[in-house]
Amino acid sequence: MSLDRIFGVAGGAMDAQVIRMNLAVSNIANAEVTESSSEAAYKAKRPVFESILANEVDARRGETQGGVRVKQIVEDQSTTPATYDPGHPKANEEGFVYLSNVNPMNELVEMTAAARSFESNIEAMNTAKQLMMRTVELLKK
């Protein structure tokens, strides 16, 4: 694998992890949002990753075969908890308020995993850079 492909694969993976991190932060920001129905309640957003195959490379986006990208962003379909609070401004006719299905602890785990993956890709890029610099120095001799 050429060094420029290493940079492409690592760069694409870093882009995907940034999206993953942004979604986790957005989910945490909306963790306390309330609604009057389960359908309207905020649902946690999750990225769906996919591998980039040779015939799917999009050079305009800087994609490299063997890399990864975010295919789509989906909503978590787990149930939204209901709380009985008839005095709440968003309570429905029965007095229930629906919270988001975001679990802040899970989002912190997602953020940590995304940060670690991002760091791993930086390390791969730094290693490739060191190899390239060492090769240049050997060619100078």
Q: Can you characterise this structure?
A:
- The chain has 141 residues and is an alpha+beta fold.
- It has one domain.
- Helix content is 45%, strand content 17%.
- It has 2 helices and 5 strands.
- The protein has helices at 3-29, 104-140, and strands at 34-35, 45-51, 68-75, 82-84, 96-99.
- The strands form 2 sheets. The protein has a 3-stranded antiparallel sheet, with no helix packed on it. A two-stranded antiparallel ribbon has the order 2-3.
- The protein is elongated and about 80 Å long.
- The two termini are 25 Å apart.
- The mean pLDDT is 90.
Brief digest:
By secondary structure, the protein is of the alpha+beta class. Helix content is 45%, strand content 17%.
Low-confidence stretches: none
Radius of gyration: 22 Å
Number of helices: 2
First-to-last CA distance: 25 Å
Mean pLDDT: 90
Number of domains: 1
**Strand line-up of the largest beta sheet:** 1-5-4
Computed structural class: alpha+beta
The biggest beta sheet is recorded as: 3 strands, antiparallel
Question: SSE order in H/E notation?
Answer: HEEEEEH
Shape: elongated
Which band does the percent of strand residues land in?
A: 15-25%
Percent of residues in helices comes to 40-55%
